[in-house]
Design goal:
globular; homodimer; Carbamate kinase; eight-stranded mixed beta sheet; 12 helices; Alpha-Beta Plaits; four-stranded antiparallel beta sheet; alpha/beta; lysine biosynthesis (chains A, B); VC0802-like; about 25% strand
Chain lengths: ~425, ~425
């Protein structure tokens, strides 16, 4: 008999029918002898509907404190209804808001971090034989103010709660039946991973894999919570996310991620003198441009070229910031490119296996495609290329690293991100 | 500068436009120099929509605890949006749920009574210059369970909060612009009352006047909170409800109420022996039939007739209960009548003015209408008559007691009852 935290996202409880299906799943788990704590998000479009309401009332961005008061009702509705659905199946259940579950956060609205969990009430209710249903995405400050955790908040609630009650497992139910070696919509022979390490998952999550929120993975890593990502629609085994993940024989790359939200900015003909690079990136930091990969070319005839990537939304802001220091820097030209994509290979074994990056470069150049920027870390290599080449690059890399499988991937509807 | 509690019902905040109008009204009050605490109900049909959702999930009556978790989200949405609407007008506001406002209740779900209010947080927020918006209809038990107060709950929240913070005034905003001498939809010349005493208001509220909930009036009486009932759509002065209300010269009846939810049950030919009446009403109490007026006729030839009134919904249950003790009692016949109405005159001065009841009986009999049952208390007389005669009876009584006025009544939309 295990103590399990189960997390269901908004689309898994999008209407009464889905709510009942989730309840059935929980009751099966309970009747198999497990103690279950369930974390649930707001139903389907509830959050968007509430945001729409607020827009009818307030011109601009409403006060964040009141927005949290408003949005947290969405999860409260979900937990109450899910508890009813479980009662309807003849099992005992009790629903709690974030504050009732003892989830304390920083005094910040809209994206608070969990500071402490006091799980006495949850544990007590479990001991009395209840399924305990906890509202995800929300908490309370020491002063009794209601807060929300921001994007990926319900994942974080689930993981933090699992750590606090020392759960054996934290199951994240979603629309896909696990973590894949790459996006199964692009590569038909993508393989579902049985295991992946926290670090690899973190890289994949940050590099564009949308199934788990990076903050939740970080939390799981820090508290050593074993995560299982699995489908809320099938009984397929999911993917275990844990400290040490076993690599299959001969496989060194665990997964391939991509991110289309990339723009490249290049500053050409920058006269070489100390501190030029610092000036540019100070100017960008001042206007809060999100900078990812940075590359400086070699110096030629006393002048150099810089390139960096940023998000599509920040591109204009970046260009304006650089123009504003043209006199100070004295560069020749600033250019930018969109329609780029960042393709990344991730694998914990890379660091001890020579030639992994070289293989990536060779695969891409064999396709006749040029690499615009490169960035590496201990467990990943990222290349920025033209968007139009994405599919063939990912397919070729997938094959080259021995990831192709013969099984058919299960892909569900739109993914839960809250 | 006064400290004012303002209460707005669900139809007053039924959509974004109404919400904004209410916010404007509050800001005017605040800018006139008053400190304002606002109690608000769930928007329009929100509660019904949530109940519908629960019916899709649960077969039968859902667990009351979870129902309270579900329904209290309605007021939380209202307070957050109303606070935003006030911010949008440039004033400071802060919204609180029931538990955040320190409203403690009994450990009962669906119809808890307020046991204590700890208003430190509300007072603190007021001191900092905020309009404080409190969710009506809800509270928390000592153990941190969320509860609701049942019908008329938001009125009760407002009055109890006014008592706890020693407010100068508790304004109940509604769809009519005060308490009327009778229903202005029936009597065009009904007069709006400037003042009414708690006891009179209690009788009127219990006798069918839907503007204020009896429990709220009782609370106001016990804590001597001055209530003002006024329109949320006009600036007309409302009706003051207080301990001692001044009567106009020559007027002894304050108001005329009616209640159509009346059925008469008669048990005829009951053999006279001790305890017969007790047996009947014990049997009715056992099946929780709500009994109002009870009349026993004189004994004739060793047998008597009993009559009583009950609600339309309880009539069948009452007849069944009586049939079930036919053998024990030995009555000849049991009959029932629907299409009845109870008309009541209310006035604190009645007790010291002879002939008030006699006038009522005479007015009704002069119309050629027979009175089915009569009941009296110190400050009211009720007569049960046939429904079809309601309008002419009320109009005639209104004139006979000198209540007709020449002013036009303002009547709004459907009334708020929560």
């Amino acid at each position: 008999m295990s103590l399990i935290v189960m997390k269901f996202g908004g689309s898994s409880v999008g209407d009464a029918e889905r709510m009942k299906r989730v309840a059935k799943r929980i009751v099966e788990r309970k009747q198999a002898g497990h103690s279950c704590v369930v974390v649930v998000s707001a139903m389907g479009d509830t959050t968007d509907d509430l945001i729409d309401l607020s827009k009818q009332i307030y011109d601009g961005a409403p006060p964040a404190r009141e927005m949290d008061m408003l949005l947290t009702t969405g999860e409260q509705v979900s937990v109450a209804l899910l508890s009813m659905a479980i009662h309807n199946l003849g099992e005992q259940a009790v629903s709690y808001t974030g504050w009732q579950s003892g989830i304390f956060t920083e005094d910040v609205h809209g994206k608070a971090r969990i500071t402490d969990i006091q799980p006495a009430r949850v544990l007590n209710a479990l001991e009395q034989g209840n399924v305990v249903i906890v509202a995800g995405f929300q908490g309370m400050t020491e002063a009794g103010e209601i807060t929300t955790l921001g994007r990926g908040g319900s994942d974080t609630t689930a993981v933090a709660l699992a750590a606090a009650i020392k759960a054996d497992l934290c199951e994240i139910y979603t629309d896909v039946d696990g973590i894949y070696s790459t996006d199964p919509r692009i590569v038909k022979v993508a393989r579902k991973l049985n295991e992946i390490s926290y670090d690899e998952m973190l890289e994949l999550a940050n590099l564009g894999a949308a199934v788990l929120h990076p903050r939740a993975v970080e939390y799981a890593k820090n508290y050593n919570v074993t995560l299982v990502v699995r489908s809320s629609f099938t009984n397929n085994e999911g993917t275990n996310v844990k400290e040490e993940a076993v690599m299959e024989q001969g496989i060194v790359v665990r997964g391939i991620a991509y991110d289309k939200n990339v723009a490249r900015v290049s500053i050409l003909g920058v006269p070489e003198k100390p501190g030029q690079l610092a000036k540019v990136f100070m100017a960008l930091a001042e206007v809060q441009v999100d900078v990812d990969i940075i590359v400086q070319s070699g110096v030629l005839n006393g002048s150099a070229d810089f390139s960096f990537t940023t998000t599509l939304a920040d591109r204009e802001k970046a260009l304006d910031a650089i123009e504003s220091i043209r006199g100070e820097i004295g560069f020749r030209e600033v250019t930018s490119e969109v329609n780029m994509v960042k393709v990344s290979i991730v694998g914990a074994g890379m660091v001890s296996t020579p030639g992994v990056a070289a293989t990536m470069f060779k695969v891409i150049s064999d396709l006749g495609i040029s690499i615009s920027l490169v960035s590496t870390s201990e467990i990943k290599v990222s290349c920025v290329i033209e968007n139009s080449n994405l599919t063939e690059v990912i397919q070729s890399l997938h094959t080259a690293y021995g990831l192709d499988t013969t099984e058919q991937a299960f892909v569900g509807g739109p993914q839960d991100r809250r």
